[in-house]
Design a protein that fits this description.
This protein is of the alpha/beta class. About 30% of the residues lie in helices and about 20% in strands. The protein has helices at about 15-20, 45-50, 70-75, 90-100, 145-160, 190-195, 200-205; strands at about 1-5, 25-35, 60-65, 80-85, 105-110, 130, 165-170, 185-190. The protein has an eight-stranded parallel barrel. Helix 4 (about 90-100) links the parallel strand 4 (about 80-85) and strand 5 (about 105-110). The longest helix has 15 residues, at about 145-160. The termini are close together. The structure holds D-xylitol-5-phosphate (DX5) and zinc ion (ZN). Zinc ion binds near residues 29, 31 and 62.
Amino acid sequence: MKVSASFLSSKNIPKDLLTLDKTDVDFIHVDIMDGKFVPNKTMPFSEMKNIYKFTSKRLEVHLMVSDPIDYIKKYAELNTECIIIHVEIDDPTKSLELIKKYSIKAGLAIKPNTPISDLVPYLPYIDEILVMSVEPGAGGQSFIENSEDRINEVRDLLNEYKIKALINVDGGINDTTVKKCYNCDIVTSGSFVVCSSDFQEKISSLR
Ligand code: DX5
Ligand code: ZN
C-alpha cells in the first residue's frame, strides 16, 4: 500500500514539505479548491507552484474545482504523477482526455453520496479512482463509516470491467480507519501525519 500525504491542514507548508521529503512517503497530495465546487478556496497557482522548492516527491493533484481545464494545463508543468478531477463536474471526459495528453495519470474522485455506478462511463479513461471518505472541502474531518463498503464496491466494479485502475482513499485516514481500506492501493492522509510530531512514525503506522 502506498501513502500520499496531504498538507491542506499544515500550519507551515515549507517546513512540513521539507520534513515529508525526508520520509518514505510515496506522494504529496495537493488539494486545490476553487470556492465553487467546494466553498473553500486554496492559494492561486502562482503561489502553489513554489512547492517544488520544498519537495522532490511526485505530486498527486486533487482538483476540487468545477472547471478543471486551466488547472490541468498549469499543474501538468509540475512534478506531477497524477491529476484527479471529480466525477460530479460537467463533462469529465474532456478533462480526462486532456490529462492523458500530458502523459500524466488520470484520476477520478467520487464524493461520499455519489453512486459508485456513476464511474462506469469513465472507466476506460482512468488510472486511479479516489474514493472520498469525507465531504471534500476541508482537512481534519472524520472518516465516513460506509466508505469501507464503497471502496469494496469500487474494487468489485474494477474486477467486473477488468480495469487495472488504482484505488485511493481520501479523508479522515489514521492508523484505525486505514484498517477499513484493505482494498486500496494508495491511502491519502493529511492531519494525522502533518499535525503530528513524528511524520515518519505516522506514515509507517499507515503502512
Ligand atoms: C478534503 C481533502 C483531503 C484532506 C485530507 O477535502 O481532499 O485531501 O486534506 O485530510 P485529512 O486526512 O485531515 O482528512
Ligand atoms: Zn484531497
